[in-house]
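Need tokens for this chain, all 299 residues.
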Amino acid sequence: MKRFPLPPHALLDPAAIAVALSFLVLIPSAGEAHQYWLTPSRYRVEAGETVELGAAVGTGFRGRGVTWDAGRCVRLAARSKAALDLSREPASGELIWIRLRPADAGGTMFAFESNFRPIELPAAEFEHYLRDEGLDAVLRARRNAPDLPGRERYRRCAKLWLAGDDASRATEPVGLPLEIVPLSAPGTRGELSVRVLADGSPIRGLLVKAWNRPLQPSGGPLDPEARDSVGVVWSGRTDERGEVTIPLGYAGEWLVSVVRMEKSGDPDEADWESTWASLTFERRESAAPAPSTASRARP
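Here are the structure tokens for all 299 residues:
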């Protein structure tokens, strides 16, 4: 599996890209088991135009953001005309991650990875969270002690695709610990097959969820803090190849998310560790209007 080449001091080619960075990382409270996603000012950018990127965390595609915490970032990278390591550039106290001016129409894949952060949840809340995310193995492991609080540490692995005509920029894995890898350019067809990789290998049986929201007339996403929460429009488990196929029956912004939980690598800090992966992109064409807030998940 190929990874992003991330040199310690990647040089930004001014002929290829103009970047001014600041960063946003949201820290959920101890009771929140939320999706985390990257969000742009718009998903389609012509060569020479500028797009702004940040992040959000929340439920049902409604979220909020906070300012950059340099201590949380493991990597921030982009694959465009060139592979860029952006992790050293952000400034504290800013709500915009990146201002980017693409050099061509090939598209850009962004990737963010955080380190672990510990939380502890009351037993009932932890059990509900495990059921909601389809983490059946952890539920079974807790069968003899369901009243114990959930001692967990979590990390984020988020990706965003800015539309372009070079599908290889979207379909090549970037090497995140847990990663949703599109098998075609996201948003160009009425469905999207993805492969979920854990440490570079396909993983079977993980619950993948998808949400959809309409875009603004300008082509940008709605403010995550201002819009209503929506239900999951599709869910399904990965097969033996780590793959699922998501029907994209609606136009607009899409969020795909998956969670993996294992025994903690640091038992003094937590009993369990979770990795949350996401992918955001736009589908422009649609056979139907955007869904309502009702959940339309597949069992």
